[in-house]
């Protein structure tokens, strides 16, 4: 498995398995099959509501000798409503995942929202990941919690030995710059949507320049799922990508992932099918020519395909 050394000093596999939108009844089989195929990097989040199921699968993998804990790289994320309770939320995720430490803990969105508890001191709502809307049907953003405060609490998870590396998710260039300015422990990773239709070249270059590993979530543009959920367009239908795929005898998805890796981003595609899981790992076995990389660079549509804020009453990407 190809890896990259993070600024924290730890190794992270450049390809992982994203666990968003995997059905609970298929999670265990998918994770165990992925480990058997050679996956060592798994990306989950409190918001996916599947950490306990992931924990069961990982525990089985360890108990049966399929893999050792130290051979895996496990990522999870703190949800918006837990920004004021970072350490508690981290411990809650660890308990569900049945792990002693996380390899990577991310701020899922730079967006603290109202905590779901009945009082400010209530910890009952830790890990309850609904996005609370006010009476006006607009997301209840908590303006009393700064992102600097959130990050300082993320740093505590490292000093407490709960987490090895910390990072960002869905941060833009300016918020990433701010985090670099106030952080004592620099973000090791920044995870954001990027693919041939949403290349975000400036953000990728900025992260690489400052020692933050850009990681592509939605590296295939969300494929059919985002077309169905958000009405997005999919790069997998693009004629240029299809021509490149024919040239190499690969699938369009493999071309997208290989392009992502060659531009020095890690990629975390999601799939539940063994054939696709295998195909996604095979992108480590070939290279795109400089000319073909340049051709793909010309098809950027600056088109975000993952649009969760459609249900939040305001466009948080505006």
Automatic annotation (TrEMBL):
UniProt cross-references to Gene3D superfamilies, sorted A to Z: NADP-dependent oxidoreductase domain
The family this protein is said to belong to: Belongs to the aldo/keto reductase family.
Entry annotated with the keyword Oxidoreductase: yes
GO MF: oxidoreductase activity, acting on the CH-OH group of donors, NAD or NADP as acceptor
Lineage: Eukaryota, Viridiplantae, Streptophyta, Embryophyta, Tracheophyta
Positions of the NADP-dependent oxidoreductase domain: 15-300
Binding, substrate: 108
Marked site positions, Lowers pKa of active site Tyr: 77
Keywords noted in UniProt: NADP, Oxidoreductase
Entry-linked PROSITE patterns: ALDOKETO_REDUCTASE_1 (PS00798), ALDOKETO_REDUCTASE_2 (PS00062), ALDOKETO_REDUCTASE_3 (PS00063)
Superkingdom of the organism of origin: Eukaryota
Species annotation: Malus domestica
Active site, per annotation: 48 (proton donor)
Protein name: NADP-dependent oxidoreductase domain-containing protein
